Fold:
Amino acid sequence: MPAVADLPDRLLLGSGPSPVPERVLAALAHRPVGHLDPVFGALQDEVAAMLREVFGTANRVTFPLSATGSGGMQAMVDTLVAPGDRVVVGVCGAFGARMADALRRAGAEPVVVEAEWGRAIATERLVEAIDGGDTRAVFVVHAETSTGILQPLDGLAEAVRARDGLLLVDCVTSLGGVPVKLDAHGVDAAFSGTQKCLNVPPGLAPFSVGERALGRVQRRSWYFDLQAMIDYWFADGPRAYHHTAPINMVYSLHEGLRVVLEEGLEARYERHARAHEALRRALAVLGFQRLASDADALPSLLAVTVPEGVDEAPLRAALLTEDGIEVAGGLGPLAGGAWRIGVMGLGALPEPQERLVRALARRLPRSDEAAAVRALEEGWGR
Ligand SMILES: *Cc1c(COP(=O)(O)O)cnc(C)c1O
Structure:
């Protein structure tokens, strides 16, 4: 039986997971200590402090849940929404639709405000829905990874607070790549994932809950019992065991956050925006058009329509197995007609993007590789 070490290397330019820096891999491979060891406790405090910085919040309760991003969503539903709650949900892609589904299953009453896939939802429409009843919360996906749009958060907190409701946000593909400012936007709770712009393997869900939301915490879920997690992560005295923290994942998140903060958040956001624009230009030369408008485009994910006449699945398979480059296909209504290309951390740099552009140009008949690479370089200002 072959070992994991025999697997080929891939350049991960899909919708996640994203490329992981060597430093982060080395941290992951460090021998575990115990989950109640004081040295691990000190590391937990540092992770929480770094996460607060990246989330743009002073929320004490900011930590990584032992779950993937979807577990963060489930924890939000299980702890902050009660059966029967009217929750306004913005849906303009697969991840908003998942939240509506999760709310329905939990016995809440999602009020869905839809927009076309590839467009953000107009704030006025969300506000109108919030004002339409006894709204306990509004949920939006900040960075909709299925369509590559960035959902504006302005104006939502005011509207929902007027009804004493909560603003809940999915920050999975924005955290670490696009400005996330929970406190400035009045976000009451947010979740994220490690394998998108943070460049850490999948397995943890950074989670942040503000004081207003803490006043509403439910203890319906045994595993996602927020109070139990607070007693472990933020205990004044000894940390109380609830479940064994995934020690090595916490190691890797610690190192991943150090990488993010060493670059600096503003520099990182600027780099993601530049990388997105450079790749957009290069792919346009090859006939791939961005789905999102300029106003709605999400820097960390470029969703493009595949040129007419190109059979996308075999092309994507050849890129993966022969060129070693992963890009993602379309989800839901976009399957077969669109690709999703990650512009996340280590993937948001000229070299990996050039590898993708050259590999694609060589596989597409009558394409101009030199012109595409030139467009990429111009986008990077070189
Ligand atoms: C990836 C993603 C998720 C789900 O995260 P998993 O780690 O796959 O469970 C949720 N929301 C958005 C916007 C995502 O991109």
